[in-house]
Write the structure tokens for this entry.
Amino acid sequence: MPEYDDPYARSGQYLDMMIAGWWDHHRAALTQALGDLPADSGPVVDAGAGGGHGTRLIAETLPGARVLAVEPSLPLRTVLLSRVADAPGLRDRVTVDGDDLLSAHLPDRIGGMVMANLLGHFSPHERDRLWEDLAPRLAPGAFVLLNLAAPLRPQRIERTRMSEVGLGERSYVGWAAAEPSGPEQVNWHMTYEVHEGDRVLSRDDVHYDWWTVTEDALRAETSPHRLRVLPHGPAEAGLYKLLPEA
């Protein structure tokens, strides 16, 4: 496996609890889409599984499916393994892979894939490799379920409080800002703070690049691989299915 430059090495300790709201907010649309996947057609891949919110939702929605959860970030994978190990309904059905998606050894036939909040980590060249690899693996009726996260084009994002989670006497606050860093990229500046009353006990600042993708760009780059793009659910969710052309 190539060396992995983990953008979540410092922020991984905060992300699982801070991303939970996204999964709760879009749960109905995600569940509806997952329910359309074919049964018994190979494992469903949770790509960039993080701490396992999506893994758990896949398993709940498709009680007969096996799940392959791919997560290269060590701190996030630690949460994922603990979540799977602590759930009797997951232990026998979920396999955890520590490779990144481009290096993972995927089965020849998969029953679908979830790529939540992941696509921006891949350059256009890497996405082309990804679509080429995934298209022939999709079982009949299977698809890739992904979201296009804002911003869809490079633009400046003012510093915004993205999440606040209370645990005991402390609260964990996440801030996000972005600046354009190229014709198809932004650089995110994330700040994670631990508060107790009026005191800020700690602060972690993290920067990473993110590739922006519009719906038109997604259609253009998947079409040569005979994948069609179908929007799913409310527009604000930014959810899409990638299905093999008939």
